[in-house]
Amino acid sequence: MAAVAITDSEADVGIFGTGPFSSDGALDLLDELADQPPGQRREALEGIFLQVRNHPDLRWRAYLPDQIVAAAAIVAASLPGGEDIRRDLADHADDVHAVLVPAPDHDLTALALHALLFAAGPDGPWHDGWVDPQTAAQARQTSDQLTAILRSE
Fold first, then answer.
1. What SS3 state is found at 80?
2. R_g over Cα of the chain
3. pTM of this prediction exceeds 0.90
4. Do the beta carbons of residue 88 and residue 19 sit within 8 Å?
5. How far apart are the C-alpha atoms of 65 and 76, rounded to whole Å?
6. Which sign, positive or negative, has the C-alpha torsion 30, 43, 119, 86?
7. What pLDDT, in 10s, does the model give residues 4-23?
8. To which H or E segment does residue 7 belong?
9. From CA 19, how far away is CA 143, in angstroms rounded?
10. How far apart are alpha carbons 44 and 9 in whole angstroms?
11. What is the pLDDT of residues 92-145, one digit of tens each?
């Protein structure tokens, strides 16, 4: 999936792509999780999802849609059907196992789905601003794939 560089007149501001791990915010989240023990990774993801659920008004201040997509993808990568997501994760993380959560439970999966639908559902902010229809369709394909994996659990 293509990454789109967002630039100003002087320097790159950031990278935003249509894959779950193809943005600066997603890569930052992977780095943060890789530095934590497995139990704390689960708690960190749960904290992100609870913040979305309990404080939807804090979008753009406390959390960004691309980070929510990445967090939900990490949960999806641990589930049956998440093989493609794990491969994508392997392309972006030095050690996939240092990022995945051990055997996510139903509660974490449900929280991940809720947060994903808020950030990247049909009217979610993650779908705003794609520059062309093909890129927008790729972003929709990513969110649809993640939604299907999380719903199947």
1. coil
2. 14
3. no
4. yes
5. 16
6. positive
7. 333 333 334 456 789 999 99
8. strand 3-7
9. 9
10. 36
11. 998 898 899 877 789 999 999 999 999 999 988 989 888 899 999 999 999 999
